[in-house]
Write a structure and sequence with these properties.
Largest sheet of chain B: 7 strands, mixed
Largest interface: A-B, 25 and 27 residues
Strand content of chain A: over 45%
Number of helices of chain B: 0
Structural class of chain B: mainly beta
Strand content of chain B: over 45%
Helix content of chain B: under 10%
Oligomer: heterodimer
Shape of chain B: globular
Order of helices and strands of chain A: EEEEEEEEEEE
Order of helices and strands of chain B: EEEEEEEEEEE
């Protein structure tokens, strides 16, 4: 069936270190993969997306890597800050539908 | 802030009742999707509206229904509420040409007792 899963439920990092959040997906028909950040009491916030024909995309302090061979997605956050503390979700878009399938989320805790 | 607004913020209903949740999309966005997020879970796709018609549906029963209005705002209606319907309900808006790029509102927290 369709599923997007996250490898670790909680990631704890020191302020200033780099963070890597991983995600596995199973649907080969997905055309876009998106990372969202959700802070307590708020809706998911769009961070970055990557098209299925790319393997890397960089944003401001974030990089997303896509490995279609093993159906793996990762989000790298450089110089992690306390404001990065949140739950991070990866989501895949079923081709041409706008139906996003989310994983369960990884909680990122940043220690000062 | 995304510009997507939802009302009400919180709602408490009794099992068997009906509820209507509202969403205003980001300026210029013509597509609205609704998601249900149970505590500790990722959002689950309910359905999507484009040009005032349902344009895709997830695995939710017919008692979950929706509307989209000419100004692209939308409503989610849930009939015969069950305890398991307690969740955060999120709407997200996007452009028809980039359905994957969805911007979420803050959500409505529904509690069914």
């Amino acid at each position: 069936g369709e599923s997007v899963g996250l490898h670790l439920p909680t990631l704890s990092v020191q302020e200033g270190d780099n963070s890597i959040i991983n995600c596995a997906y199973s649907n080969s028909a997905s055309d876009y993969f998106i990372w969202y950040k959700q802070e307590s009491g708020k809706g998911p916030q769009f961070i970055i997306d990557i098209r299925s024909n790319m393997d890397k995309r960089q944003g401001q302090r974030v990089t997303v890597l896509l490995n279609k061979t093993v159906k793996h997605l990762s989000l790298q956050i450089a110089a992690t800050q306390p404001g990065d503390s949140a739950v991070y979700f990866c989501a895949e878009n079923i081709r041409n539908t706008g139906k996003l399938i989310f994983g369960q989320g990884t909680t990122l805790q940043v220690k000062p | 802030e995304t510009g997507v607004t939802q009302s009400p913020t919180h709602l408490i209903k009794t099992r068997g009742q009906q509820v209507t949740l509202r969403c205003s999309s980001q300026s210029g966005h013509n597509t609205v999707s609704w998601y249900q997020q149970a505590l500790g879970q990722g959002p689950q796709f309910i359905f999507q509206y484009y040009r005032e018609e349902e344009n895709g549906r997830g695995n939710f029963p017919p008692r979950f229904s929706g509307l989209q209005f000419p100004n692209y705002s939308s409503e989610l209606n849930v009939n015969a509420l069950e305890l398991d319907d307690s969740a955060l309900y999120l709407c997200a808006s996007s452009l028809a040409g980039a359905l994957y790029e969805q911007y979420f509102g803050p959500g409505t927290r529904l509690t069914v007792t």
